[in-house]
Design a protein that fits this description.
The protein has 516 residues and is α/β, with parallel strands linked by helices. The chain has 2 domains: 54-119 and 240-501, Aldolase class I (TIM Barrel), CATH 3.20.20; 122-236, Roll (CBS-domain). The chain is built from 19 helices and 21 strands. The chain has helices spanning 12-16, 24-29, 31-34, 84-92, 105-118, 135-145, 168-171, 198-208, 228-236, 259-270, 285-297, 311-320, 337-341, 347-360, 374-382, 421-426, 455-472, 478-487, 497-502, and strands at 43-45, 61-62, 68-69, 73-75, 96-99, 122-123, 150-153, 162-166, 192-193, 212-216, 222-227, 251-254, 274-277, 302-308, 324-327, 365-368, 387-390, 405-407, 410-416, 446-450, 492-494. Strand 9 (192-193), helix 8 (198-208) and strand 10 form a beta-alpha-beta unit. Helix 15 packs across helix 17. The protein is globular and about 85 Å long.
Length: 516
């Protein structure tokens, strides 16, 4: 019988000679590739050796020069995606949300304040009612906000004398919902007295076993509220993105017109951590002027410039002083810029080339657009993105603005591009340099997406999926992924149309795709 050949023992150096696939430089910088832009579907990442468990994978990543997130996710500043509820959920899971500016200055600043207050412990603007309100008013609050623990004050407002509390225990079994609250409220209260530290307030909550703790001043007036839920949040959201004061991180978008200087002033006063200069084409004199203004008046504020897609554009904004870059033009699911304007760039090529330059200049890049699957997130990180901005992937979740509606028996939510006619009529025309034009050219569409449920279920799924993806690549962290990208150890392969078809679901009569 023939004998099997003896195994050849190879060293890591010898193995390099047999390494399959292409380096990123081979993929994007070769003569062939330099003439053809690539998007995420055009290539696949080759696996590498695994010598660690998925629980060992770290997702920390830089958003700007000074801000690091614990997960590489950001929500897009679109008026159907990010307001305070979305920004809060993103930050709780280690990412960040950017509040859109298709609203008034006061409204946008209030969204920022809501995020900054959320994790501070002290609820400084709780809902309150007067003794003459009814149990039906408690029902309305529970239906809209999901809770029924409400302080009762003399005037029904904050900074008014605290008279009692109404909780679900007080009203659950009442049949007469028109009964006034002064007949059902609990008046024997455990309270904290101003000044009261968060640590002291939490200790009172623990020993009293109450759900909420009102904080009153020397005159007995309600000045704040502490909720037991906030204690649970510290336990349940260990990845939460926080500033030095233990408040959630939040970003906001502004335009590049003179009026946006006032918007920036209001956002800084509200406590915003990072600002995106929101332009569809970010390499403009208007953005350079705004960068100059922002850095002159708020030198510590982190500024993200964009959108850009070329190294030349990126270098200009970095030289002007931005702390991060937003990459992408015409690649969103509801964006028609490439179709209408014939301007843009395939997203993988754009992220790779801009990140190569930005990395040398010490500035992270955020990949914005072209992401519709978890695999796209992995590829955005693998070609140099530090953070991935999502719009359509988050649209339709409970935390997005707007109400659900039914069409053909399917539960939907509206989703629209900021370049759509609807959005531009509201406020976003300046993003496309057409706010003063009599005839506006839409660069986006309006549509609807299916209900995705709560972000608090969806984001943990994405986080775990990205960890598994990095494990398959043999990378314990996003930073190691980028080191291997730069050294050429991370390997890629082009995919033919047949290979793309093979890599997806095929050869089935029918199937269901489930999130978990």
């Amino acid at each position: 019988m023939p004998t099997a050949p003896s195994p050849v023992v190879t060293s890591p150096t010898t193995l390099d000679a047999y390494r399959d696939g292409l380096s990123a430089s081979d993929l994007f910088d070769s003569r062939e590739s330099s003439q053809v832009g690539l998007t995420y579907g055009d290539f696949v990442i080759l696996p590498d050796h695994i010598d660690f468990g998925v629980e060992a994978v770290e997702l920390a990543c830089p958003l700007t020069r000074t801000i690091t997130l614990k997960t590489p996710f950001a929500s897009s500043p679109m008026d159907t995606v990010t307001e305070a509820p979305m920004a809060i959920a993103m930050a709780l899971h280690g990412g960040i949300g950017f509040i859109h500016y298709n609203n008034t200055v006061e409204e946008q600043a209030e969204h920022v304040r809501q995020v900054k207050r959320y994790k501070n412990g002290f609820i400084t603007a709780p809902l309150t009612l007067s003794p003459n309100h009814t149990v039906a008013d408690i029902d309305a609050i529970k239906e809209k906000h999901g809770f029924s623990g409400v302080p009762i004050t003399e005037n029904g407002t904050m900074n008014s004398k605290l008279l009692g509390m109404v909780t679900s225990r007080d009203v659950d079994f009442l049949t007469d919902r028109s009964k006034p609250l002064h007949e059902v409220m609990t008046t024997d209260l455990t309270v904290g007295h101003e000044p009261c530290t968060l640590e002291a307030a939490n200790q009172i909550l623990k020993t009293s076993k109450k759900g909420k703790l009102p904080i009153i001043n020397a005159a007995g007036e309600l000045v704040a509220l502490i909720s037991r839920d906030d204690l649970k949040k510290n336990r349940d959201f260990p990845l939460a993105s926080k500033d030095a004061n233990k408040q959630l991180l939040v970003g906001a978008a502004i335009g590049t017109r003179q009026a946006d200087c006032e918007r920036l002033d209001a956002l800084v006063e509200a406590g915003v951590d990072v600002v995106i200069l929101d332009s569809s084409q970010g390499d403009s004199i208007y953005q350079l002027d705004m960068i100059t203004y922002a850095k002159k008046h708020y030198p510590q504020l982190q500024i993200i410039g964009g959108n850009v897609v070329t190294s030349y554009q990126a270098e200009r904004l970095i030289t002007a002083g931005v702390d991060g870059l937003r990459i992408g033009m015409g690649v969103g699911s509801i964006c028609t810029t490439q179709e209408v304007m014939a301007v843009g760039r395939p997203q993988a090529t754009a992220v790779y080339h801009t990140s190569q330059l930005a990395r040398r200049m010490g500035v992270p890049v955020m990949a914005d657009g072209g992401v519709s699957t978890m695999g796209h997130i992995m590829k955005a990180l693998a070609v140099g993105g530090s953070v991935v901005m999502m719009g359509s992937m988050l649209a339709g979740t409970n935390e997005t603005p707007g109400e659900y509606f039914y069409q053909d028996g399917i539960r939907l939510k509206k989703y629209r591009g900021m370049g759509s006619s609807e959005a531009m009529k509201k406020n976003s025309a300046s993003r496309y340099f057409s706010d003063s034009e009599r005839i506006r050219v839409a660069q986006g569409v309006s549509g609807a997406v299916m209900d995705k449920g709560s972000l608090h279920q969806y984001l943990p799924y994405l986080i775990q999926g990205v960890k598994h993806g990095l494990q398959d690549m043999g990378c314990r962290s996003v930073s190691i992924l980028h080191e291997r990208l730069a050294s050429g150890q991370l390997r890629f392969e082009r995919r033919s149309p047949a290979a793309q078809q093979e890599g997806g679901v095929h050869s089935l009569h029918s199937y269901e795709k489930s999130m978990i």
